[in-house]
Every structure is written in C-alpha cells, then in structure tokens.
Amino acid sequence: KMARTAATGRTAATNRVAVQDMKASLFLSSTSSKVTPTVSPMLQMQAAYTIATWVQVTTRVTSSSAGNIMGSSAGDKLWLNVNSGTGIIRIYHADLTPASVVTSSTNIQDGRWHHIAASYSGGSVKIYLDGALVATQAVTGTLNFTSSIFTLGQGNTTGLVGRYSSMRVYSRALTLDEINQLKNGNAPSGAIVSYPLNEGAGTIAYDTSGNGNHGTITTGTYTADVPTKKRELVGGNMVKNGDFEFAPPVNAVGNPTSHRWID
Question: Under the phi-then-psi rule, with left for phi > 0, alpha for psi from -120 to 50, and beta for the rest, what region is 253?
Fold first, then answer.
C-alpha cells in the first residue's frame, strides 16, 4: 500500500511485519513420527544450507538421545535436535570437526512455539532461536550426504514429539536478516523444500517451493494450534480473535435501520 504523506498529518509506517496466515500445524505424536520428502534434498545441501521450522515441544523425550527436529534417517550424517534433559538445541554433522555444536545458554520451553534454524557455509555452523543467533562454531571438513535421506521428525534416532509448522530448506546459508524475514512470514526466495504443514488432513505434506518434492507423513495428525494467525482489519466485517470470530460492536450499534443481525 502507498504510504500517507506528511501533508495529511500522518507519517509513513516502517518495519511492518507480514503475519503468516497459518490454518493448521502438523502434530508428530510419537518418536517414530516423521515427514519424508519424495527426493532427499541433502544432495543440494553439501556446500551450504539453511534448515528452519516452527516447533512446539509437547512431550520431552526421556531417552538418552535427543529429540530430532530434522535429520538424516539413513547414514546418520546430520541432525538438528533438542537435548532431552535441558532443552538445549544441537546440530550434528558426522563429516565435520567438531561434529556437534551446542547452544550453551539458550534453551527452548516446552509448550511454547519457537522458530528454530540452523545454517552451514564457508566453514561456519550457526543456530538461531526465535530470530536471534544463539550459537556459532568454526568447523573443518567436507559434508558428504550422498547416501542420506532427509526427514522432518524422527531422523535416525528418536523424534521430537510436538507440533511443526512452516518447515523450509535452502541450499545456502541465510543471513540473520533473512532468518528474521522467514520467522516473520516473508520467506526468502530459492527454497529447495517448503512445507507449510497446514493441509489439515491426509498423509501428504505438499511442497510449495515449486520443486514438487512432496513429503509422506508417517504417524502424524493435524491441530489448530499454530504459531500465529492472520488478523483482519479492525472495523472490517469480521475480526479474527484467536480461535473464534466476532462482529465489531460498532458495526451493529451504528446501524441506522430498525433491523440488525449477524449472518
């Protein structure tokens, strides 16, 4: 929209956020639940990558291994996971030295939506939590994902039990600004896989990146609990308010006719 000029007595708005209209999220209800792409995107992730998703942990895994958010279900080459005891986020690479990077001071909270992302490029691994950089580690070595199958959820060990929304993979490392754009609903172009995970039913996670790499959902259900909802303009015909809707009172009270109703 065109910004109002100073002549009208108003100034242009800045730093607006595009809120994502998420209608559903995918609940992976057991440690064996997962989403498996038709074709593993890992061959395109060997030089650089960013993996990101919204996650809400509902049940912290109690085994000695961490709950996987994303990873390779064959070859055990890569996982992005949450430590079962502390809630600390960890990224693991079998081919890099050091193999794992752990956030030392920041952890996720059970029952709360978090935006989690990890990237690799030019000998550096980074982890982002809710749009903030929470870990950076210099690494050496070369990634080799030729025999790996990428999954959201289970991976090669136990999966993270909880809700997932808006999972994306890029074959480059996004900048901090791009991570925040992604978190706020303005997804940078060029994703190799993009799963909104808002279908609401069925066993297919549709890829909206344009690459047609749809995923198969194993033991997953849908829920109306989502990270954010799109709110319509106040004063419009209907205003969304959480999980219910109402007509603004001004519309009914101000009606000059003798009949008032809401359809």
Answer: alpha
Tokens 């055990």 identify what position? 76
Q: Which pair of tokens denotes residue 71? A: 């990873």
* Whole-number CA gyration radius for the chain: 21
DSSP 229-257: ---PPTTSS-EEETTEEE--HHHHHT--S
Three-state DSSP at 192 gives: strand
> Are 91 and 148 contacting, i.e. CB atoms less than 8 angstroms apart?
no
Among residues 22, 34, 42, the alpha carbon closest in space to that of 192 is found at 42
CB atoms closer than 10 angstroms to residue 183: 24
HSE (CB half, 13 Å, CA atoms) of 97?
2
C-alpha span between 234 and 104 (Å, rounded): 43
pLDDT one digit per residue (tens) for the chain, 263 residues: 444 444 444 444 444 444 456 689 999 887 788 999 999 999 999 999 999 999 998 876 555 556 788 888 777 799 898 887 778 898 999 999 999 888 877 888 888 999 999 999 999 999 999 999 999 999 999 999 988 888 998 755 566 788 999 999 999 999 999 999 999 989 999 999 999 999 999 999 999 999 999 999 998 999 999 998 654 444 445 545 554 544 444 344 444 455 555 55
3-state secondary structure of 115: strand
Bridge-partner residues for 141, per DSSP?
A: 96
Single pTM value for the model: 0.78
Q: What is the DSSP letter of 158?
A: P
What sign does the CA torsion over 159, 166, 190, 210 have? positive
